[in-house]
Specification:
By secondary structure, this protein is α+β, with helices and mostly antiparallel strands. The protein is 40% helix and 18% strand. It has 4 helices and 3 strands; from the N terminus they run H-E-H-H-E-H-E. It has a 3-stranded antiparallel beta sheet. Helix 2 packs across helix 4 (65-78). The two termini are 13 Å apart.
Length: 100
């Protein structure tokens, strides 16, 4: 994966959930809504360990704001109210490689 692939994933959304199972569902939903070339970039850095260290927060990234909007609509439609909370969005928050 090139640095351009990561830079293209700059539309982020940070969510909070207290439920590890919901985190895993959000990861799958992220991949479902991502229209870019490498969907695994979109949920990179959202491991259970990083989620725990971030007090239940996870940041997902998309290559378009439309993908991010679709993700939020689908999360509202599919997941029970109160199982996750929107913490914020950013239009200039590019992904970075997670493997060292």
């Amino acid at each position: 994966m090139s640095s351009a692939d990561y830079a293209a994933c700059r539309y982020s959304v940070t969510l909070k959930t207290d439920d590890l199972a919901v985190l895993h569902m959000l990861r799958g939903l992220t991949q479902h809504c991502y229209s870019g070339r490498l969907p695994q970039i979109s949920w990179g850095g959202t491991t259970a360990k990083s989620w725990r260290l971030s007090d239940g927060r996870a940041t997902f990234r998309f290559s378009t704001s439309a993908d991010r909007s679709q993700f939020l609509r689908e999360a509202e439609r599919l997941l029970p109210a109160g199982t996750w909370k929107l913490e914020g969005t950013d239009d200039n928050d590019p992904a970075s490689p997670q493997r060292k």
